[in-house]
Design goal:
Layout lengths: L1 H16 L2 H4 L13 H6 L5 H16 L37 E9 L2 E13 L2 E13 L4 H20 L11 E2 L2 E2 L5 H4 L2 H7 L1 H7 L3 H10 L13 H37 L1 H16 L7 H21 L3 H10 L5 H35 L5 H38 L4 H18 L5 H32 L5 H29 L4 H15 L16 H17 L6 H48 L1
Antiparallel strand pairs: 1-2, 2-3, 4-5
């Protein structure tokens, strides 16, 4: 049986050794075992030629990077004569070079061990499958099982040699991360003419003549179908909202906010001084000191800030500032105006917080105990000083802005139009193309209301300067310039909010809700979020207006004795106070009625929808 197996083994290796690829010195893909028990049993010694060949193969095997399949070590059988059977099968893949599978079967039984090693190489060297079998038998007693296994191995070798025919050589496939990469077949997938011939759009466009193409374009669909799409009802509503519905509601909101600012300004000039005079009159008549309330402390603090601001601004030389701004040639006038406007907005935002701090200290001072009196007095004094300094700084900035606007209006080189174009379009550029939330647009609408009131204060300064210094007919020119400034400001606000609402998907009903919150603020109805209220500090505009109107009143006083001049001053102040108080009452009552009507209308609408 051993001879039979040995003969079969020699036949298999003779077939493999006759392969030209193996004889040509290429890397060996099938490695034989270094130990052959059958040759050792037969006493066959290898020839000198075979020894050189083996040495040559070993040298080449050391240079190749192919993995060497090691043999399984078989432990010797220990124990009694009763044997056990062990069957083991392994299959491993060694990469892209050999695609080999190695199957080993170890059989132990009845004191004999048989190791069958099968190495399969597929698609290599032109062979479909090449198999090598090493049968190692260790006879320790009993040879029936050994003969059975050898017979099975012999039969399998005959089946392989008879059934497997060599295939034509196939080029090795490239590997990418362990996966076989399929290459495109040029004859089928890269046939551009065939692909374009199967495309109906290609046939539709290529086979046309220029005349047929032009006629098809004339009769086929919309002429702008390639760059535009058909709109929907929603898009139509957005267009009409941007052009008609939203501008009207936006302008109503900003106008109501402007009149609320004007009402607060008139309250500072009429209501606050009256309450302070009443407090001092009660103190003088009763001659009993009574600790003031929080409202009285707030009025006293605002009156002190206003008086100090007017006194400090009265010391400034307006003509000097005017000539400094007009005479410099480094910076353009519209750039200077933009700088003052930016600082004005910053002071307006921060001034509300400073005034709230003062009112908070006044509330704590009015309700504090005797033990904490010193602490609250020091806190109120420090907050009063901070508010005074900040208000004076804001007044100087607003005065410089008014002087710059007056310089642009009286200039004869179209500086006003340059200012309007640069300022307004810079405002559009800085706001329209940004992402805004609903609350940010709400705050922006209130900021536009405050800005419009500051522009009105600047125009009043220009009017006062023309009254004092202008020669010849100037009133018509002033009206025209003021009208241009206001119209440009209105148009810019409308364009800005219309496109902001379009780009941020804000419906026009949102501006109606903003107006409802503003009306509730007018009626002193607490809303859910107090941060959404309109914040306006009229201290700086009031200081500027008083500063510019004082020379106008002084210019119309006659040169008469001091008592008569003092009487004329009292008459002018009384007339001005009556006019401002009447205007305050009219605007305040009108805002109250409008707010009541609008809030009730919104409630009815919500009740109807529910």
């Amino acid at each position: 049986m051993a001879l039979r197996s040995s003969g079969s083994r020699k036949l298999s290796f003779e077939i493999l050794s006759k392969n030209k690829y193996l004889e040509g010195g290429g890397p060996s893909l099938i490695y034989q075992s270094s130990s052959d028990p059958f040759q050792s049993q037969n006493g066959g010694n290898p020839s000198r030629h075979n020894r050189k060949k083996k040495k040559h193969k070993k040298r080449k095997d050391s240079t190749t990077d192919l993995p060497i399949i090691a043999e399984d070590l078989v432990d010797k059988q220990r124990g009694s004569s009763g044997g056990s059977v062990l069957a083991e099968s392994k299959s491993e893949n060694y990469g892209s070079r050999d695609n080999g599978n190695v199957n080993r079967i170890s059989y132990v039984g009845g004191g004999s061990v048989v190791v069958l090693e099968e190495s399969v190489c597929q698609n290599v060297c032109g062979f479909g499958e090449l198999r090598q079998r090493n049968v190692n038998g260790v006879v320790a007693g009993g040879g029936d099982d050994m003969e059975t296994v050898a017979a099975r191995a012999d039969e399998s070798v005959v089946e392989v040699s008879s059934s497997k025919e060599p295939f034509p050589p196939v080029a090795p496939q490239s590997m990418a991360n362990g996966n076989v990469v399929n290459r495109l077949k040029t004859s089928e997938s890269l046939d551009w003419k065939r692909v374009m011939a199967e495309d109906p759009n290609y046939l539709y466009t290529v086979d046309k003549s220029p005349l047929k193409y032009f006629l098809d374009e004339m009769h086929y669909g919309n002429s702008l179908r390639n760059t535009t799409t058909l709109g929907s009802e929603k898009e139509r509503e957005r267009v009409y909202d941007t052009i008609f519905r939203l501008p009207w509601r936006c302008e109503v909101l900003i106008s109501v906010g402007f009149f609320i600012c004007f009402d607060s300004f008139l309250s500072l000039l009429t209501i606050m001084p009256t309450r302070v005079l009443i407090t001092f009159w009660r103190l003088l008549t009763t001659r009993q000191f009574k600790w003031p309330s929080a409202a009285e402390l707030c009025d006293f603090g605002c009156f002190l800030v206003l008086a100090c601001g007017v006194i400090v601004l009265g010391r400034t030389d307006i003509s000097l500032i005017y000539h400094m701004i007009r005479g410099q040639g480094t910076i353009k006038l519209y750039v200077v105006y933009n700088v003052w406007e930016i600082f004005d907005k910053l002071c307006q935002r921060f001034g509300g917080d400073v005034l709230e701090t003062l009112f908070n200290s006044a509330e704590g001072l009015a309700n504090c105990s005797q033990e904490n009196m010193g602490f609250w007095i020091r806190r109120f004094v420090s907050d009063q000083a901070l508010t005074m300094a900040f208000s004076i700084l804001h007044s100087f900035i607003l005065l410089a802005q008014a002087i710059t606007l007056s310089t642009c209006i009286v200039a004869h080189n179209n500086a006003l139009f340059a200012l309007l174009v640069s300022n307004n379009f810079a405002e559009i550029k800085s706001n329209v193309f940004k992402r805004f939330s609903r609350d940010n647009i709400h705050s922006l609408a209130y900021s536009d209301s405050v800005e419009r009131f500051h522009i009105s204060a600047c125009l009043l300064f220009v009017l006062a300067q023309n009254i004092l210094e202008a020669e010849g007919p100037w009133f018509e020119s002033f009206l025209f310039n003021a009208f241009v400034v206001f119209v440009c400001e209105m148009l810019i606000d409308i364009i800005k909010h219309s496109f902001l609402a379009k780009f941020n998907d804000i419906k026009p009903i949102a501006y109606s809700e903003f107006l409802e919150d503003l009306c509730k603020q007018t009626l002193n109805i607490q809303t859910e979020d107090c941060k959404k209220n309109l914040t306006f500090v009229p201290l700086a505009p009031a200081c500027v207006v008083i500063r510019v109107l004082t020379p106008v009143y002084a210019a119309h006083l006659p040169c008469s004795p001091l008592a008569w001049r003092f009487f004329r001053i009292l008459v002018l102040i009384s007339m001005t106070y009556i006019m401002l108080t009447s205007l305050k009452v009219m605007i305040g009552m009108g805002l109250q009625k409008h707010a009541t009507w609008y809030v009730s209308r919104c409630r009815k609408r919500k009740h109807h929808l529910d």
